[in-house]
Amino acid sequence: MRKGAKRKAASQKQEEKEVTQENQKENHKPAPKAKRAKTSKPQPEPEYFEDKRNLEDLWKAAFPVGTEWDQLDTVYQFNWNFSNLEDAFEEGGKLYGKKVYLFGCTEPQLVPYKGENKVICIPVVVAVVSPFPPSDKIGINSVQREAEEIIPMKQMKMDWVPYIPLENRDSQVDRLRSQIFILSCTQRRVALKQMKIDRLKKYEYCLPYFYQPLKEDELEQSTEVQIIFPAEPKPVFCEFDWELDELDEFTDKLIEADELDKDQKDAFKEFVKERVREAKKANRQAREARKKALDEMSEETKAAFENMRFYKFYPVQTPDTPNVSNVKAPFINRYYGKAHEIL
To answer: Quick one: how far is CA 6 from the chain centroid?
Structure first.
């Protein structure tokens, strides 16, 4: 055999040996472990959230004028439902397509809740349908204050501002032609601690002011004056009617009832006379101002005042809120009088 043929045969045998060894190694490899089947975790039930209604926070946006600061949290302790207010802006509703000015207030009432009667601070929203703001002033009055104040609402950090519905919150305010305005207050509660007591109390005595020039005001017709006489040991609180009461007889009755000291009789009478003079002067000025305003008023403005409407909204009854159906009343305040309709 030739040398080349021997080398070729030896090479083939070597290759066959290597292949056989590789096959033996493969056969002796441990079998792969079987993979565990993954147990699927139970999937949680999908959560569903109700879509927010377009005017859902409207009642909260209207500042509750005249509510004590420390009572504000109690107003919002319940999830009050004002869907009646929201529905009023829908097609066919009382406020649909109209320019409306809203302000809030509260009415403490004894109402049933969870089987017992409780005094609850009930939120109320008043809607004024008008082509212009009903007033830019606030009245400040209480039994404790000697005189009523009518001041610009901006002095109390209040103003009419446009309400932006939820679906329009991403839009620029100046591009929206808002038809809903709310009485807003920018006074921060955190700053109340530094506020003087008299200034703080003013907020509790605030009432949204309204003057109706087309009819005589109750104050113009009134013949009563509130008397707060600074006597010792305690002030004398009473009402005096200059048409029905005779001053000497009125004073003697107070002395008999130990409400007034006999030595203060003359001083008290002078005090009452001065208050009566002030009230008569105020009544006369009010009549003159109303006559002047009417003379200068355009027919368009007169028509607006004639067609102005007040709607008073109470919360809708729900299972988790107190029942207020038996305490609804048309009276708004001494300036606005009664609402045209309660809802």
So the answer is: 109
Q: Which two tokens stand for residue 180?
A: 């809903």
Listing DSSP states for 168-209 in one string gives: GTTS-GGG----EEEEEE---GGGGGGS-HHHHHHHHTEEE-
Going by C-alpha positions, the residue among 59, 171, 179 that lies closest to residue 131 is 179
Q: Where are the alpha helices (DSSP H) in the chain?
A: 3-27, 58-61, 72-75, 83-88, 197-204, 218-221, 247-256, 265-296, 299-307
Residue 24 C-alpha from the chain's centroid: 88
Residue 181 near residue 162 (C-beta atoms within 8 A) = yes
Residues in the chain: 343
* Stated pTM of the model: 0.66
DSSP tag of 137:
E
Query: Structural domains in the chain?
Result: 57-213+308-342 (no CATH), 215-296 (3.10.20)
Per DSSP, 140 falls in state E
Give the strand pairing for 180-185 and 158-162: antiparallel
> For 143-196, how does the pLDDT look when each residue is reduced to its tens digit (9 = 90+)?
555 567 888 889 888 899 998 877 666 655 544 456 899 998 887 766 666 667
